[in-house]
Amino acid sequence: MGFKGLNLKIKYRSSDDDIVNDFYIPVLENAKLYKRAVGFFSSSSLIEVSRGITGLIKNGGKIQLIASPKLQEKDIEAINKGYEDRDEIFERSILDSFTKPSNYFEEERLNMLAHLIAKGLLDIKLAFYEDDNKIGLYHEKIGLIYDDQGNKIAFTGSLNESSTAFTKNFESIDVFSSWKGKESLERVAEKENDFNRLWDNQTNKITVFDFPSVGIEKLKTYMKEDYDQELDKKEFKESQVESLEFDLDNYPKVPKEIDLYDYQKQAVNSWVDKDFKGYFNMATGTGKTFTGLAAIAKLFAEKRSLAVIIVCPYQHLVEQWVEDIELFNMDPIIGYSASCQRDWKDRLKDVVIDFSLDVIKHFCLVTTNATFASDFVQKQIDRLKGNVVVVVDEAHNFGSFNLSKKLNTNIPYRLALSATIERYGDPEGTQKLFDYFGEECINYPLELAIKEEKLTQYYYYPIVVHLTKDELDAYRRLSKQMAKCFTTNKNGKKVLNDKGKRIAIKRARLVAGAQNKLSALKEEMIDYIGESHTLVYCGATTVSDIDYVDGKANEKELRQIMAVGSILGNDLDMKIAKFTAEENSSERGILKKEFSKGENLQALIAIRCLDEGVNIPKIKRAFILASSTNPKEYIQRRGRVLRLASGKKFAKIYDFITLPRPLNHVKNMAKSEIKSDISLIKKEIKRIEDFADLAINPSQGFRLINKFKDVYNLDKLHGGV
């Protein structure tokens, strides 16, 4: 149709335009001749010049290219002083300007240009500035394009055909069309005259000569049997999904071998319907990670451009996410202090610039909560423009005072993943999460997951222990101190002050580290000395071995996890290992593999780093020595045991229930003493109810609850600290 049918602008700028798609491709598809003076010569400048020319080639068009050898200061000095032959320096410069193509498209473009040279459709000349026999650089930029109807387009500006012109720099070009008035026609004629005089070596102080044969031979080394005539269409004009797939670059997509469950598809669709905001409330082990990644793929498919930021609590969870991110066809930047990608900060800075300028259509950062909250990462996020999504795993953590301040409101698309989105005892923090992420997209509870066989069934065995006399005395003392630390909040509700909260933590640790749990664990574990796939959850606390001499305590404190390790490893001679924050990601990976095999490693002893996200499906039984009153913690721990695995028909959970004193002592106590026990009893009952309710053997837990209620007359008594 010629140029007149195109809706051309008089200026194109990187901030507002896609210069390749908006200018080069439509113009060159209607062209017969392309004349270009590009500045410096390099293989990357050839690649950039070739963008959009497949339409020109189909029209039987030709290209005339003028470039300047990219000389170093020492080269110019050597020529000017006669130290070295000028032609030899030019040839060396041309050969040095060829660099290895970095992807399929660059390789194919050099192949295509080699074919054009061989067919006589591409002619290259070199130019340099020369005055009084002194050599300088020629760096003029002119473009002329002709159609078969006599129309001409001239363009000038800052756009260099270099490795960074189309990809990293901010560029602009001015466009003049011969049919758009006298002034524009004159400018086209002026630029045409300038180029033709250059081509014919008639420009004052500029010397133009034929491209050296060594350069032609070098270009021909990229020639294949044929070239891809649909190259521009594949790289630019089709949907970005198709072009990236052809380019072998990475972009989010659901792997063909993964068939999402219906509830996962419903979650993604609900998130889409809610304008790509919301949270997935899904039981631990039901595939939150895959569902979140499928949501990312869905968003990319619609927007065709997407920056992805994935945040999870710990470094070992980042590494676990990386495996799944790569499965979903993304190449993540792994951002945290000990990352295997030493240059992750430089990579992140580069892709943020490229993405914001629409040079690239996608990148993915996966990072920890702490690194996400760092000034460096927050600064990069502030610089992002365009379609950005943040996916936060175990998102309940971001309701905290410090992390909630790092939830950037400029990120348009948001997804929270959690089995326990509501923060225990923190309604304000919970509301912050709802305000930022939006509405619930799916509620897939543990009960439904077990019923639909997405998680395994389990037996529940509560193991009752009681505090020692010294522990009980300490517990009652702390309870009395706590009772003095209540205050009234703005809603008129009685709450603990900061001092009271510290005392509460100390009291909880005392219960978690109750000494009698160790002997009870040893007794229960005897039945599994020869078994594998056992997990023991310890508290981040201490146990005390106390000998009283003349009424004075001689106390040796030992971390509970070390005491458990000694019992299992030394006393019972089992093959065990710790799984804690002290082990690095590589060590944890080895532990998971060995644990799954079950040959050289029978049991893992863990603290909190297994609470969130870690996937070890082979766990058959768990001994929970310590659980806080926070449902999030024991829900996470239960879910860790219920993941499906080959050969695993059911799981077993042994839950250590701590009472203030033996039940047969209660009947002889005064009511005031009984009341001090009630708080702990009620908390333990709540957990037993939650565990027993979904167990294969619920009666085991509920019989115990009824016994507690009967002994403590809980239907009549109320209160307690």
What does this structure look like?
InterPro entries: ATP-dep_DNA_Helicase, Helicase/UvrB_N, Helicase_ATP-bd, Helicase_C-like, P-loop_NTPase, PLD-like_dom. This is Superfamily II DNA or RNA helicase. It comes from Selenihalanaerobacter shriftii. Residues 521-686 form the Helicase C-terminal domain. The structure is a single chain. With 721 residues, the chain is of the alpha/beta class. The chain folds into 3 domains: 3-237, Endonuclease Chain A (Endonuclease, Chain A, 2-Layer Sandwich); 246-451, P-loop containing nucleotide triphosphate hydrolases (Rossmann fold); 457-464 and 520-541 and 560-712, P-loop containing nucleotide triphosphate hydrolases (Rossmann fold). The strands form 5 sheets. Strands 1, 2, 3, 4, 5, 6, 7, 8 and 9 form a 9-stranded mixed β-sheet that branches. Strands 12-13-11-14-15-10-16 form a 7-stranded parallel β-sheet, with helices on both faces. Helix 14 (344-356) packs parallel to helix 16 (375-383). The radius of gyration is 35 Å and the shape is elongated. The N and C termini lie far apart (85 Å). Residues 159-169, 238-248, 544-557 and 717-721 have low confidence and may be disordered.
